[in-house]
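Lab meeting tomorrow. Look over both lines:
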Amino acid sequence: MANLTNAQLKNLRQLLNNNFTKLRDEVRAELIRSGEKHYADLVSGVLDIGDESVADMLADMDAALFDRQIQEIRDIEAAWLRLADLSYGACIDCGGDIGYERLSVYPTAKRCFTCQSQREKTYAHEATPRL
């Protein structure tokens, strides 16, 4: 495990637990809200293509938000596994320390700042949609 003190690890575990609880509650609330939303009814009741596209956009935005929340939950679970196998705080690319400062801001970080910056430069084009 990286050079983290017991107090720092305790603080980071608490951050992960708090983030997990918050996300779980958000997902639960979103699932309840989505049951109340009837985009299909909205789309079927409109004859205007503009209104139909707005309804589609709203449904897509809800799906994207839900996907983001689920991915964050997966990242927290992966961080918990790294805590359990004592690899938490070590960069998955170079093996160096991620650093408490970075982890306290982004407790699910898998890479040190240098490796993450390089990864973002290398794979930046992958997030760009193409036809």
Summary: The two ends are 44 Å apart (CA to CA). Residues 6-127 form a domain with the Four Helix Bundle (Hemerythrin (Met), subunit A) fold (CATH 1.20.120.910). The longest helix spans residues 49-84.
